[in-house]
Amino acid sequence: MNKRIEKRLVLKPKIKIFFSKCLISIIILLVGMILVKEQEKYKETFHKVLYERSLSFPSISKLYNQYFGNVLSIGNTSLEPVLSEETGFQNIEESGEGVRIKLGISSPVSSLETGVIVYLKNHMMIVEQVNGVEVAYQNINSSKKLYDYVEKGEIIGSMEEDYLYLTFQKNGEYLDYKQYM
Questions:
Q1: Residue 150: which of 128, 180, 177 has the closest Cα?
Q2: Which of 14, 98, 141, 154 has the least CB density, counted as fewest CB within 10 Å?
Q3: Which pLDDT score is estimated for 156?
Q4: Nearest partner of 109 among 130, 86, 128, judged by Cα
Q5: Which of 169, 160, 153, 161 is nearest to 98 (CA)?
Q6: Cα-flanking dihedrals φ and ψ of residue 34, to 5°?
Q7: Residue 77: inside a domain, yes or no?
Q8: Cα(90)–Cα(113) distance, rounded to whole angstroms?
Q9: CB contact at 8 A, 81 and 110
């Protein structure tokens, strides 16, 4: 009986903190929406920031985690990495600025890291990861949409051809694939 009471006492502060964070987020969102709707200068600023500049997912993610933490984070530890033995890759070789991996047509491809899809067209997907690295997946069919959030290990598509091409960039510079695979 005492364990039940202790659990309730421990859960109450966590629930209060969670609801406080939710209410503060809602208040900030509503105030922002009112300002944008009523004030022309805020509307112009909002449009410039949202439509003319590129928002950095890593900085938004870092800011959110700093103030709100990973309240709703769900771990996907059971998903396979993109280069597991089960996916059937046969060889990996350098190709231009990235890497070429033989997987086979229709093989599943999973995300190397948590991030946001920032480009999706012509069998190519670019995911901006939480570490700031942009990974381009080429020769991929996907049902995902632009700006979808993907978790590490989540299946993001299937192979269009026999080879998957991956390139890694940060701040416009190509990176060595060995650091990220």
A1: 128
A2: 14
A3: 92
A4: 86
A5: 169
A6: -65, -45
A7: no
A8: 22
A9: yes
Q: Kindly state the tokens that stand for 30.
A: 């509503």
Q: Where are the alpha helices (DSSP H) in the chain?
A: 2-38, 40-47, 57-68
Residues 125/151, Cβ–Cβ less than 8 Å:
no
For 50, phi then psi, to 5°, come to -80, -40
> Which pLDDT value is given to residue 86?
44
Are 94 and 100 a contacting pair, CB within 8 Å?
Answer: yes
What residue numbers bound the domain in which 165 lies?
A: 85-179
Least confident of 67-71, 81-85, 133-137, 154-158: 81-85
Which tens digit of pLDDT belongs to each residue from 7-61?
555 567 777 878 888 888 899 889 888 888 888 888 888 777 777 776 676 777 7
Q: What is the CATH number of the domain that holds 97?
A: 2.70.70.10
Are 150 and 114 in contact, with CB atoms under 8 Å apart?
Answer: yes
In a domain, 60, yes or no: no
Q: What is the pTM of this model?
A: 0.56
Please list, in sequence order, all residues whose beta carbon lies within 8 angstroms of the beta carbon of residue 22, skipping any fewer than 6 positions away. none
Considering the domain architecture, whether residues 89 and 174 belong to the same structural domain is answered as yes
- Determine how β-strand 115-121 pairs with β-strand 124-129: antiparallel
In a domain, 74, yes or no: no
Give 157's strand partners: 109
State how far the Cα of 178 lies from the Cα of 181, in Å rounded to an integer. Answer: 6
Cα radius of gyration (the chain): 21
